[in-house]
Write a structure and sequence with these properties.
This protein has a two-stranded antiparallel sheet. The model has no long low-confidence stretch (mean pLDDT 79). A hairpin with a 5-residue loop joins strand 1 and strand 2. It has a domain of 29 residues. The chain is largely without helices or strands and 58 residues long. 0% of the residues are buried. The termini are far apart. The protein is built from 1 helix and 2 strands, in the order αββ. 9% of the residues lie in helices and 10% in strands.
Length: 58
């Protein structure tokens, strides 16, 4: 089966989570350049907001 247009190989190989599954740990760079990991917030509520690239002024 071919990947949907615009998807990379890694996106098609990434496990799909179901409701209630624990999120895998990941790291991202914050606006000030610090690396933040999801595991650093263990035990806290975390809300992720994704913005389309078109709305980032970059």
């Amino acid at each position: 089966m071919a990947a949907p247009k615009g998807r990379t190989k890694i996106a098609t190989q990434t496990k799909t989570l179901k409701v209630g599954d624990p999120a895998p740990d990941f790291a991202l760079r914050s606006h000030d350049g610090r690396e933040i990991t999801l595991s650093a917030f263990r035990g806290q509520t975390v809300v992720l907001a994704f913005f389309a690239f078109a709305f980032t002024n970059t």
